[in-house]
Amino acid sequence: MVRVTYVAEGADEVTLDVAEGTSLMQAAVNNGVRGILAECGGQCQCATCHVYVADEFLDRLPGMTEDEDEMLDLTACERTANSRLSCQLVATPALEGIVVRLPKLQR
Amino acid sequence: MGGDSGPVVVVGAGHAGFHLAATLRQGGFGGGITLIDGQDRLPYQRPPLSKTYLAGRAAGAALPFRPEDFYREEKIRLVRGDPCVEVDRARRCVTTAGGARIGYRHLVLATGARPIALPLPGIGLEGVCQLRTWADADRARALLRAAGQVVVVGGGFIGLEAAAAGYGAQVTVVEAAERLMSRAVSPLLSRYCLEVQRSRGVEVRLAAQVTALRGAAGRVGSVELASGERLPADAVVVGVGVRPNVELAEAAGLRVADGIVVNECLETSDPRISAIGDCCAFPGAAGGRTVRLESVQNATDQARCVAARLLGDRAPYRDLPWFWSDQGDLKLQMAGVGDRASQEIVYGRVDAGRFSVLRFRDGRLVCGESVNSVGDHVALRSLVAHGAEITPALVSEPGFDLRATARSFRARHRAAG
């Protein structure tokens, strides 16, 4: 299991134990974490599962595909160097302890 | 029976119905929300049923939109396995098959659509299936896994996705029209997809009509065409389109015409009743005609529009239609609707398999179809959505850069506020 912490705008943090192989998006929607919509169900089509990954975890992330890179231009909140689509972040031991901040809006 | 203190009742828990309930509650709605569906399942997603789930590469656990806890925590009353059978507009209540009577303050019809059932001899044979529900996908998966010869009836998105499920059988796609996906894509894209299918060893028969399914001992053995030819088949997947589920609305006296007719705010002729998703026919943005769209985007965005209205923010539905289809490693994405386009121009490299088809009507960009080119698609969403002055002449200029044009267009649009 991989410990993942989601920090929503102005709300409490939620820490989940996520099974390896599960995306951070799937873990969030399966466990009542608000602030991730995932309207396309994880198909990298809607950019409503946008998260900001805390700085110290950026270099532990799986590489970004060209498709994800393109879709990130569609996020409702500003895209930064910390932006990723959580449907593309799959829990692995390398991500243990990861902290992601949820944007104010997904639409 | 129903009144202003009653719940918002949503009939149908597909993409539109689920998103209506979720968005309404998450937008702060304080009243009751009742979500009714005829299937005894947690509300679930449809796209994987013809793609990764059908191919055995996604698990059933990933299909529900949310776990059971979600409905409890969000105080959404989920009525499962008990379809709505009547709407009583005078009393403002609905009745379910099991006899429950539920009063509403507002009713949202998200009844979706059902597969067209071809009235062919042999359609009831073992080994023949359609592809709409989770149960259908389970049946189709089992059939495709075991089959040696698959015939797919229908060369639209569902048929082509099913043909790409990849279980190693010999696949033949039979399409009645002259080209694949004829209702939805440009002739150029039809031709390209045809070549891709054939290069994969899929046989495609165009302008071919299925007249019967033949078999022995109750199991399908062949598919008969109008030409008299018989295609051997031990599995047949039928995907020839859908019909909107308008019966409840029609029986209740609401106007229907290839869909439940709604105005630009997605209200039916009864102000207490809205309709969204695959089942509804709404005014097209260009004006002058009625549109019915079958897509996740349309269902989700129409749900959001009605939820916003119920929360006090009334606005016409003007969202850009967009769509995707995954056919093996062919990733199709579409921005806008091109059925009235009269001109098409290719952008990018067809030979490299990464390109877009820009479709124009009256000299303006109305639709962009992208193949394995997400960057093009993202650019096209902006350009088509804002009715950009993208003309055939502009696109044909040497050095025209679609993405740069979209970026500068977005920047100008932002700057102008």
Would you write up a description of this structure?
The complex is a heterodimer of chains A (107) and B (417). Chain A has helices spanning 24-30, 66-71; strands at 2-7, 13-18, 50-53, 83-85, 98-101. In chain A, 41% of the residues are buried. The radius of gyration of chain A is 12 Å and the shape is globular. The mean pLDDT of chain A is 95. Chain A is of the alpha+beta class and 107 residues long. In chain A, strands 2-1-5-3-4 form a five-stranded mixed beta sheet. In chain A, strand 1 and strand 2 form a beta hairpin. Chain B is built from ten helices and 26 strands. The model of chain B has no long low-confidence stretch (mean pLDDT 95). The radius of gyration of chain B is 22 Å and the shape is globular. The N and C termini of chain B lie far apart (47 Å). Chain B is of the alpha/beta class and 417 residues long. Chain B has helices spanning 15-26, 68-73, 134-146, 157-163, 187-199, 247-251, 296-310, 374-385, 392-396, 402-415; strands at residues 8-11, 33-36, 76-79, 84-88, 93-96, 101-103, 106-109, 113-115, 128-130, 149-153, 170-174, 203-205, 210-216, 219-225, 230-232, 235-238, 242-244, 260-261, 273-275, 280-283, 290-291, 322-327, 330-336, 343-349, 354-361, 364-371. The longest helix of chain B is centred in the C-terminal third of the chain and has 15 residues, at 296-310. In chain B, strand 13 (210-216) and strand 14 form a beta hairpin. Classes of the chains: A alpha+beta (107), B alpha/beta (417). The interface between A and B is medium-sized, with 19 and 24 residues.
